[in-house]
Amino acid sequence: MTTTKKPAFIAYAVTGEGKDAFWTRIGSVWPHNHSEGFSIELNALPANGRIVLMPPKAIESTEGAEVAR
Fold it and tell me: Worst-scoring range by mean pLDDT, 3-7, 37-41, 51-55, 60-64?
């Protein structure tokens, strides 16, 4: 998906829990232009099946990087 709009959410694969959780950005989510719903573009899939969606502003400083939260 090619768009100039900022995504509504950033998709992260999260392993671990709490302070030991490791967040890896794996994609982005955009709202549809003319209907309800969202389009999800994933660059990877998590091995554990856990995907967390967060607003871009919530984790701007970590965008595009692997981080421990």
Answer: 60-64
Cα separation, 52 vs 48, in Å, equals 12
DSSP letters spanning the chain: ---SSPPSEEEEEEES-GGG-EEEEEEEEEE-SSSSSEEEEES---TT--EEEE-GGGGGGGTTSEEE-
Is-contact 25 65, C-beta < 8 A?
yes
Q: How confident is the model at residue 69 (pLDDT cuts 50, 70, 90)?
A: very low
Structure tokens that stand for 37 in this block: 């719903």
Q: Which pair of structure tokens corresponds to residue 15?
A: 């392993």
pTM of the complete model beyond 0.90: no
